[in-house]
Design a protein that fits this description.
single chain; globular; seven-stranded mixed beta sheet; 340 residues; alpha/beta
């Protein structure tokens, strides 16, 4: 185990927006980074996931709603930041806070030590004990791949949106984008429509709202536990606008056989390439089962001293946004500071 991790009051797992928000909240209460708490992250290249998003990606929220508290984004307030601008912003926040993450350290589990208040954090390099652990490993960590994708054989490429960067990655021809019920699929369909023949497969057609109405119409009106969030609209392009740009809108894909996919209405298509804009699973797979039991408040778990920041399933709708994660961070920091 690396030196500098032991005998810390808290360990934050994840150096992204959620981890930095918790770090900022702890610092605001007087805790010192590298001395009373540390941040660890599995990334070996010291890069957050924002740095790997596609080059033209812009946030749905404008700069006013894309920052951590008291740390403004140096852009026009009404401009929608690019993903690389958010990556640079988080680097600047880390530097300003004086946080020096332990990079390349993968956490695989956590458990309570005996009947006391000590937690044992299990990592790929060994175990370390601490009193508090914060899971800040993100709501969009593991690309979600449909089961039928393993049966797909196309002459071009099959990419999850996590690995898409720019149109030149995709050979010329017919492109099927799966996941048109979300904003990523809609944005990629618009981008690729200028250079490819695009079909967008939509499982759930969502209402459309202009981009300027985000975040007012995003995931509003739901409780933090027990009820699913309201259906999120698509922002920016509508399905009608995409059709006008030459994009064909098809039903959900139900299966694949070699180079052919089948849609829910029984029709088929033989695409040259496929992009899976099918979403992500959260980075919570290392949490024990008791972490989801008997949760009494957002960001709390059933294991004393174990907290989750930035994952809506453990908190409120919007907790996975830059503006929304601060509520989790404040609750967690106060609880850690008050624990004996």
């Amino acid at each position: 185990m690396r030196s500098g991790l032991t005998h810390r009051r808290a360990i934050i797992v994840g150096a992204g927006q959620a981890g930095l928000a918790v770090a900022a909240a702890l610092i605001g209460l007087g805790l010192r980074p590298q001395q009373e708490f540390v941040v660890v992250d599995a990334a070996t290249d010291r890069q957050r996931s924002w740095a790997s998003r596609w080059h033209s990606m812009r946030l749905l929220s404008d700069a006013r709603h894309s920052t951590l508290p008291l740390r403004p984004l140096p852009l026009d307030p009404h401009e929608h930041p690019r993903a690389d601008e958010i990556a640079n912003y988080l680097d600047q926040v880390q530097h300003t806070l004086g946080v020096d993450p332990f990079w390349g350290l993968r956490v695989v589990g956590v458990e309570r030590r005996g009947h006391g208040s000590v937690l044992q954090l299990q990592t790929a390099e060994g175990d370390v004990q601490t009193r508090n652990v914060v899971c800040a490993t993100g709501a969009a960590t593991h690309p979600r791949i449909p089961a039928w994708a393993s049966e797909l054989r196309v002459p071009g490429v099959v990419l999850h949106s996590a690995h898409y960067q720019f149109p030149r990655q995709v050979p010329t021809g017919r492109v099927l984008i799966v996941g048109g019920g979300g904003n990523s699929g809609v944005q990629l369909a618009r981008e690729l429509s200028a250079s490819h023949k695009v079909t967008l497969a939509v499982r759930t057609r969502r209402p459309h709202r202009p981009a300027r109405t985000f975040p007012v119409h995003a995931r509003a009106g739901s409780s933090w536990l027990g009820r699913p969030p309201a259906v999120q609209p698509v922002f920016g392009d509508s399905y009608h606008a995409l059709r006008h740009a030459g994009v064909a809108v098809a039903p959900a894909v139900t299966g694949a056989d070699g180079g052919q996919v089948t849609f829910a209405d029984g029709s088929t298509l033989a695409p040259d390439s496929v992009i899976l804009a099918t979403g992500y699973d959260p980075g919570e797979d290392w949490l024990p089962a008791e972490a989801t039991a008997a949760r009494s408040r957002p960001a709390m778990t059933g294991l004393p001293g174990l907290f989750v920041a930035g994952i809506p399933a453990h908190s409120r709708p919007g907790a996975d946004t830059l503006a929304g994660v601060s509520r989790d961070a404040a609750v967690i920091a106060r609880t850690i500071a008050d624990r004996p």
